[in-house]
Write a structure and sequence with these properties.
The chain is α/β, with parallel strands linked by helices and 135 residues long. Helix content is 33%, strand content 25%. It has a five-stranded parallel β-sheet with strand order 2-1-3-4-5, with helices on both faces. Helix 3 links the parallel strand 4 and strand 5. The longest helix is centred in the last third of the chain and has 14 residues, at 96-109. The chain is globular. The termini are close together. The mean pLDDT is 90.
Length: 135
């Protein structure tokens, strides 16, 4: 299966190790995985994937607000309505549940069908979660 991982970190920075571990877990199950950085890439390639994984970080510890780059990249992929997807959030603070609700709301606003969501604790946990995609 062709899978896109949209990395939406809180600030513009290199791809974190937990996202590469998530991709490594998916690739070990035989999937073809591409990582799309929400800050530098556009979302025009997203309709070409069978499954879209959004891995995000909340902008602040208490608000649960998602990065503005996430909304930009999801709205650019005009053909993503009806795509199966997963929402992963890095645990950052006490309001992780609120941030997860905001992430899923942003994805569903674009018409994505979120069939799995989970909170990533660290890189080894992300790799284990990646192995469960499509299993």
């Amino acid at each position: 299966m062709r899978i896109a991982i949209v990395s939406a970190t809180a600030q513009k920075k290199p791809i974190p190790d937990y996202i590469t571990s998530l991709a490594k877990g998916m690739e070990s199950m035989g999937h073809r995985v591409d990582i799309i950085d929400a800050w530098t890439d556009d979302g025009f390639r997203l309709p070409g994937y069978e499954y879209i994984v959004v891995s995000a970080e909340a902008v602040s510890l208490f608000g649960g607000k998602m990065p503005e780059a996430l909304a930009r990249v999801l709205s650019a992929g005009s053909g993503i309505g009806g795509k199966k997807s997963a929402a992963f959030l890095r645990k950052t603070g006490p309001f992780t549940g609120k941030a997860m609700a905001n992430l899923m709301r942003a994805m569903e606003k674009e018409g994505m069908l979120v069939n799995w969501s989970d909170i990533i604790l660290n890189a080894p946990h992300a790799e284990v979660l990646g192995k469960r995609i499509g299993a």
